[in-house]
Write a structure and sequence with these properties.
This protein is an all-alpha fold and 421 residues long. It is built from 20 helices and 2 strands. Helix 1 runs antiparallel to helix 17 and helix 13 packs across helix 14.
Length: 421
Amino acid sequence: MMLNTSHIVIIWFVLSALWGFLMWKLIHGNTTHFRTLRPVLIAVCMACILVLFMHTDLLSDDAHRYRWDGWVAAHGLDPYSAAPTDVSLEHLAHANAGVRYPADINNNTLKTIYPPASQLVFRICVAAGGTSPLGFKAAWVGVCLILVLLTLWLIWNNVVLSTLYLSIIASPIVLLHGFMDIHVDILMALAAGLAIALLHRSTMISMAAQGLLGIAISMKYLPVVLVPHFITYNNVRLRAIIQRLAIIIAAVGVMYLPYVGSDVLGSLGVFAAAWQANSFLAWIGNNVMQPASTRLALMAIAVLGLMLILLRYRSKPEWAAGLMVMLVLLCSPVVHPWYLALPLVLLLIAPMRSTIVWTITMSIYGLTYQMYKGNGVWFDNPIALALEYVPVFVAFAVDIYRGPLLLGDEQRAGVATSVDG
């Protein structure tokens, strides 16, 4: 049976409830429970990915732009050079599996906003699978699974963390927005997760972690908050910190080098100004001031909060990274479900209550999306927003006050969370 949006919304609620129960078991379980859950989670992930693979573009049409950008790059053209409807690209117009390029691309009069590492993946996926939704998606899922398997291989000897990582892959955020619909944020988060696993290995391998973090930053910019953790891990000396930072910068530079002189930011400013706010704080702000003022106020709150987090938790950069990502998202005027991919992966180093709670309450987003698909009007009911956000604010306050969650016997016994074997 082919699923539609109504089915997915119901599935989303069910998955969220089941995932919440799973996380409750992980928090209160012991090492034996973790070891028993691992093969079950592997089977569940494989089954869900297979079922969801045949369904695409149900909750978002962002993938239309991914396929177009890859198509442009595959023809040796700069994806930042022109908007899809520009006359200079009209020779690339075509239809594939019922999708018309560029007619069906959302905001097709605006240039792309996706950074260079994302463009590289788009080009690879078009080369491997073409521009049909399922062909492109097959290549995309293949890249994601390679990252997942490499990460699992690196952390497999740690029963607690490997089971936790599998629970991340089994989350509704990753399944619905990474393996059903596809989003760059999921791929970026998986790359960041592999970088975290690499960081905790031998010195030579951990050097590769810095480069992979630079690539993740070049997919979406949010992983930049992980830089303090990556350059100070193991309390290294200043020379090592400088070397690590140089590797990250070099990796970013390599990704951007082919596009020197291009309009890499594309229409990002236009998109940022036009995106309709869908967060609880933005809704509150917009009821007392102009949207532009709300954005400035939220930015000021975020900047101040980031500075305070860095000062208070400078001796625990991994925990600071988790708190900073969550603060940025809570203060962002626009938050879509796939934005939670990075905090989910950061459960490996910063097990946060707010991440778990938001992953569950984000399912309420599906109701708003279903109404939008029905009448074309995007309206976030304030009651729905409160139900989604208020529990997260409470959990975030507890995170700040009590520190990270302790998972399994080892962590409850006081052993620090680590991805070492």
